[in-house]
Design goal:
single chain, TIM Barrel, twelve-stranded mixed β-sheet, two-stranded parallel ribbon, 16 strands, elongated
């Protein structure tokens, strides 16, 4: 009989499964705490459980781990982890130290404390969307990650670093909203008071614009932060660099974001990689200003990290500072994303695994 992996089950499912073996709910709570809060995967180390219960658990259940295959450390303190999954698939996660995530001008944002520790998490092996500026999109898409594989990225990095992770951004490999159910279950575990106890205010989900799921998030009143990879407010240009725009049009995406705000009252973040001559023109600035005045939002402006693998002749904009200054002069809320981990291919758009089975 195959053993049931308890890692990846939320508190409710853990209690339901253990109830079948007449294990009381308070024991399920203790087990949940051991797995997530204390990050223990060995039943014998769960000292407040009886010997008989530990024997039963070892007979019927297991607590699996994904394996750290490689660590790469940047000169700026960023750490990239390469994980080997149970089926030998591979994904990457990135640990971002304090003062490396978002900055205003050259100083840290006021809401970024020195003890902030952020992990960038993957949700798929590869990505099916094929954005022209993202190395992950050039990988062959294999599958969605399970809840266990999503959550264990945080647990393994936390154990390896010996530090408590305070913030989670779903901006790694894959499109999170194409793995919606597992994403939501993983976030539930991360936020649970008996689990990792990470505030939902410290969780951000990035999407290329999967409209049905954006609406679903709004209707289900999910309270994590939502970031939309926008990159252009021109329908044709966005379709050129982001094929998903051929399915979910820009005008419809903007309307879904407005709906999201009306339902949740949460400010949206628009991510905007700046390309030379493509989306850094005066007309692009005017469109951003117009959008910013139509709903509460902020723009995360990102430098383009070039790669020879990209099929389009994309170049980073030489107008970066001028572009940002123009928007700020027009009272647009603008954050500038640091290129943390660029020297180890861990910056925005650089995550890719050469071989995935």
């Amino acid at each position: 009989m195959d053993k049931i992996n308890l890692k990846g089950l939320n508190a409710e499912d853990t209690a339901i499964i253990l109830q079948k073996y007449d294990i009381p709910s308070f024991r399920a709570k203790q087990l949940f705490q051991w797995i997530y809060r204390k990050n223990i995967a060995d039943f014998d180390l769960m000292t407040n459980l009886s010997k008989e219960l530990r024997l039963l658990l070892k007979e019927r259940f297991c607590i699996e781990n994904i394996a750290i295959e490689k660590k790469s450390v940047s000169i700026d303190g960023t750490i990239k982890y390469l994980f080997n999954l149970p089926d030998n698939g591979k994904i990457e996660s990135v640990l971002l130290p304090p003062l490396s995530v978002n900055r205003l001008e050259e100083s840290a944002a006021d809401d970024e404390p020195l003890n902030r520790l952020t992990i960038c998490v993957s949700t798929q092996v590869g990505c099916p969307l094929g954005c022209e500026f993202c190395a992950t999109g050039y990988m062959k898409y294999k599958r969605n990650l399970s809840v266990f594989e999503i959550v264990d990225q945080i647990l393994q990095v936390q154990k390896d670093s010996g530090k408590e992770i305070t913030n989670v951004v779903f901006m790694g490999m894959g499109e999170p909203l194409l793995n919606y159910n597992n994403l939501i279950k993983a976030i539930d575990i991360l936020c649970h008071v008996e689990g990792l106890k990470i505030s939902n205010k410290h969780i951000t989900v990035s999407t290329s614009g999967i409209i049905p799921e954006i609406i679903k998030i709004a209707d289900e009143h999910k309270k994590f932060k939502l970031a939309v990879s926008l990159h252009s407010l021109d329908e044709d240009i966005r379709s050129k660099i982001m094929p998903i725009n051929n399915k979910y049009k820009l005008t419809e995406l903007i309307e879904s974001v407005r709906y999201y705000y009306r339902k949740t009252k949460l400010k949206i973040t628009f991510e905007y990689i700046l390309f030379d001559g493509l989306n850094d023109r005066e007309e692009d600035i005017r469109k951003i200003i117009k959008l910013s005045r139509s709903m509460p939002c902020k723009f995360n402006i990102i430098r383009f990290h070039e790669s020879e693998i990209f099929s389009l002749d994309l170049k980073g904009s030489p107008r970066f500072k001028e572009f940002v200054d123009r928007l700020r002069n027009e009272k647009v809320t603008v954050m500038v994303r640091n290129s943390s981990g660029e020297d180890i291919a861990a910056a925005c758009g650089q995550l890719a695994v050469k071989s995935n089975g």
